[in-house]
Amino acid sequence: MSVALIQPLVVRTVAVSDPDDLLARLPGAAPYAWIRNGEGLVGWGEAARAMVPPGPGRFDWARGWLSSLFAGALIRDEVGMPGSGPVAFGSFTFDADAPGTVLVVPRVVLARRDGRAWLTTIGDNAFDLARPPVEPGRIRYGDGTLTAPQWEHRVARAVRRIRDGGLDKVVLARDLTAVADRDIDIRVLLGRLARSYPECYTFSVDGLVGATPELLVRHTGQAVESLVLAGTTPRGSGPADDATRAAALYASKKDRHEHACAVASVREALTPLCSALHVPEEPELLVLPNVQHLASRVTGRLSDGASVLDVVAAMHPTAAVGGTPTGTALGLIRELEGMDRGGYSGPVGWIDAHGDGEWGIALRCAYISGRHARLFAGCGIMAGSDPATELAEAQAKLRVMQYALEG
Ligand SMILES: C=C(O[C@@H]1C=C(C(=O)O)C=C[C@H]1O)C(=O)O
């Protein structure tokens, strides 16, 4: 297959002076990015790419492809940090059987972490001519797979199914289409997202772009960390209203149960892999510009040398994006959503040659292609869910990418 045809990668990482705004260094409109609070990695060009075949073995396939690629590489890494040396950016589809999972090793990666900065180049150090970003102009929206009222009906059906005892929780999503006057330059979106959502992970992988608050797993050596989110209320009209809404969220049996389902799924996935695992008793509140979430930071130590992709494979799909029990929820999602989620709500992130990396759940995101965008948002549906409230919550989540497109 393509693996056999690839020449060994010749990789060099050197320390560089502070690059300031990483996103401003991207020379062209097809970038790779993973940025939070100004730190992270940006990349461009392609040294290697794999379209990962769909199916239950996709994580194994990805792991095999990466290990033969990285094992054959000639690596000179003068920095020795997580994310130095060669890295692959990846986006896995939500549904294991859907096409569209991709891994790309950019030709150039520029990164900053803990006050250090580095540049990784692969192959000939070709000079990249920068083109200034271009604004997309006016944006027109259209319905995606379902209109808003149709989606509310599907939510009502899911609630009935839950009340009938079929399952505890299911996450239902909807999509929205957008067309711009001009081709959408992803760098414009990334700049807006990183400025307005600095706490989130602003990402870009092969046309999937967003700012997700949900860290599936960060893997550094033996340490793993995850930020589980579930249970949401929109921001209020001011500090007092915010506080009232936050208190109601904490007190809501429905939201606490929804959150507990998501935490339980992460605990179950991580327990077999970890020698130590800390799961907080009570959630905290994560306040974002558009919504507030119940949040639990889970930390652990891996018992053996599992890579970040092994951990991702064990965790996906958590109940934050699938439901409880997982299998029943996935069947209901297929039946009721009537759309292919693609990489939305799938794992997105990067991995280095040591198996370290950071992967988020691709939320608050859109696929960008030419002048077109397809935006996604979903909500956890419980027995006590009200379709109109869930629609409002999905709309609040869609605002992240609407803002990225419109400014
Ligand atoms: C599904 C999404 O978000 C997830 C669902 C949440 C909820 O229903 O409360 C909260 C955070 C995410 O885990 C989305 O943003 O599309």
TrEMBL record:
EC number from the UniProt entry: 5.4.4.2
Catalytic activities: chorismate = isochorismate
Entry keywords, A to Z: Isomerase
Domain of life where this protein originates: Bacteria
Keyword Acyltransferase recorded: no
Limits of the Chorismate-utilising enzyme C-terminal domain: 149-397
Matches recorded under InterPro entries: ADC_synthase, Chorismate_C, IsoChor_synthase
Top EC class, one word: isomerase
Gene Ontology MF terms in the entry: isochorismate synthase activity
Family named by the database record: Belongs to the isochorismate synthase family.
Name of the protein: isochorismate synthase
Species per Swiss-Prot/TrEMBL record: Microbispora cellulosiformans
Lineage: Bacteria, Bacillati, Actinomycetota, Actinomycetes, Streptosporangiales
